[in-house]
Design brief:
The protein is α/β, with parallel strands linked by helices. It has twelve helices and 14 strands. The chain has two domains: about 190 residues, 3-Layer(aba) Sandwich (Isopropylmalate Dehydrogenase); about 150 residues, Isopropylmalate Dehydrogenase (3-Layer(aba) Sandwich). The strands form three sheets. A ten-stranded mixed beta sheet has the order 2-1-3-12-11-4-5-10-8-9, sandwiched between helices. It is globular, with a radius of gyration of 20 Å. The structure holds 3-isopropylmalic acid and magnesium ion (MG). Magnesium ion binds next to helix 9.
C-alpha cells in the first residue's frame, strides 16, 4: 500500500504532519512518500502540480492532502494558481465522488452558532460531484482578450454542463451511501439539490437523478432548489440524510454544512474514483492567516486519514481506532482555538496530534 502525502500550503504542512504521526503509530505496513503541491510547488518548480507530484499521486493507492492557496498567488494566471493543483488531481485521477460528512460531536454542540437542539445528533452526508459542472465546462474565458490578464475584457463566461453518465454515476453513489447509512440506522433519504427552475443543466440533473432513483425503491428521494437547501440547512439541518448535488452547489453547501457542526476544523472529506483510489483532505482551506503558528486544528486531517484507511486501504479497524481516539481527546476536554470554549483546555496543533497518538493506546 502506498500513500502519497501532499501537505501543500499554509497550515497544510502542520496538520498533515500530525496525521502522518498518527498513521505511523498504527501497526500497519504502508509506504508514504511526500511531494510538493500548490503554491509550495509553484515556488520550487514554477507549477502548482508538477509532473512528478501528479505521477506519485496516480501511482499511489491514496493521497493524503493538506490544503492549497495563499493570497500572494492571486495575481498569477489562472493555470498557475495553487487551486489548479487540486482541480488537476481531481480531473486526472477521475475523483468524481466527493464525500463531505457533517457530524456534530456531542462535546462540541456549544461551538456551533446554531441552537444546540437544532444540531445535537446531526449526522448528514453531502455528496458533491467533483469533476464536472461549471468548474470544468468549456469554453471558459473572457472576451476581448488582449493579453494573459484580459485587461480589455468586457465580459467573462464559464459553461455549466453535465452529461448523463456523469449524473448517473454520482446518483448511484448517493443512493448506495444512503442504503449503507440506512442499514446503520438513518432514515434512508437522498435529497438532490438543483436549480431546475432556472438552469437547463439542473433540470436535466433532476430528471436523471429521478430515473436512477427508481432503482432504489427502499430509499426516499426528494428534490430541493439550492437556495432553499441553503436555508433549510440552517433552519432544520436534521431533516437531511444524504444530499447529492453538483460541483458548484456542493462546494458552497458543504462549507455551510460544515459550520453547522461548530468548526470546519473537524470535518474530513474523501474524493473517490471508480477504482476506490482516493484523495483525502480536510474540508477546510489553507488558512494563511494562522499558518506557521502551531494553532490549527489537525483533527479534520486526522479524521481524513481514518476515511482513507476505510475507503481506499481496506483497514476499517484502524479507521475506527483513530475515530475513537479523536472522541477520546475531545472527551478529555482538549481543544484547539477554533473549538475552544470556557472550561476546556486550549492546545496547539502538535499537542492535539500527540494527544490523539496517546489515545490510540
Ligand atoms: C474545496 C475548495 C476548492 C473547490 C478550491 C480550493 C479549488 O474550495 O475543495 O471545496 O472549490 O473545490
Ligand atoms: Mg470549497
Amino acid at each position: 500500500m502506498k500513500i502519497a502525502v501532499l501537505p501543500g500550503d499554509g497550515i497544510g504542512t502542520e496538520i498533515v504532519a500530525e496525521a502522518v504521526k498518527v498513521l505511523k503509530t498504527l501497526d500497519l505496513k504502508f509506504e508514504m512518500e511526500t511531494a510538493l503541491v500548490g503554491g509550495a510547488a509553484y515556488d520550487a518548480y514554477g507549477h502548482p502540480l508538477p509532473e512528478a507530484t501528479l505521477k506519485l499521486a496516480m501511482d499511489s493507492d491514496a493521497v493524503l492532502f493538506g490544503a492549497v492557496g495563499d493570497w500572494k498567488y492571486d495575481k498569477l494566471d489562472r493555470p498557475l494558481r495553487p487551486e489548479q493543483a487540486i482541480l488537476g488531481l481531481r480531473k486526472n485521477m477521475g475523483l468524481f465522488a466527493n464525500f463531505r460528512p457533517a457530524i456534530c460531536y456531542e462535546q462540541l454542540v456549544g461551538a456551533s452558532s446554531l441552537k444546540p437542539e437544532l444540531i445535537s445528533g446531526l449526522d448528514i452526508l453531502i455528496i458533491r460531484e467533483l469533476t464536472g459542472d461549471i468548474y470544468f465546462g468549456q469554453p471558459r474565458g473572457r472576451r476581448i482578450a488582449t493579453d494573459g490578464h484580459f485587461p480589455g475584457a468586457e465580459e467573462a463566461f464559464d459553461t455549466m454542463r453535465y452529461s448523463k453518465p456523469e449524473i448517473e454515476r454520482i446518483a448511484h453513489v448517493a443512493f448506495q451511501a444512503a442504503r449503507k447509512r440506512k442499514a446503520a440506522g438513518t432514515e434512508g433519504r437522498v435529497t438532490s439539490v438543483d436549480k431546475a427552475n432556472v438552469l437547463e443543466t439542473f433540470q436535466f440533473w433532476k430528471d436523471v437523478v429521478t430515473e436512477v432513483g427508481k432503482e432504489y425503491p427502499d430509499i426516499a428521494l426528494d428534490h430541493m432548489y439550492v437556495d432553499n437547501a441553503a436555508m433549510q440547512l440552517v433552519k432544520e439541518p436534521k431533516r437531511f440524510d444524504v444530499v447529492v448535488t453538483g460541483n458548484m452547489f456542493g462546494d458552497i453547501l458543504s462549507d455551510e454544512a460544515s459550520m453547522l457542526t461548530g468548526s470546519i476544523g473537524m470535518l474530513p472529506s474523501a474524493s473517490l474514483n471508480t477504482k476506490n483510489q482516493g484523495l483525502y483532505e480536510p474540508s477546510h482551506g489553507s488558512a494563511p492567516d494562522i499558518a506557521g503558528k502551531g494553532v490549527a486544528n489537525p483533527l479534520a486531517t486526522i479524521l481524513s486519514a481514518a476515511m482513507m484507511l476505510r475507503f481506499s486501504l481496506n483497514q476499517p479497524e484502524a479507521a475506527q481506532r483513530i475515530e475513537a481516539a479523536v472522541q477520546n481527546v475531545l472527551a478529555q476536554g482538549l481543544r484547539t482555538g477554533d473549538i475552544w470554549s470556557e472550561g476546556t483546555t486550549k492546545v496547539g496543533t502538535a499537542q492535539m496530534g500527540d494527544a490523539v497518538v496517546k489515545a490510540l493506546g
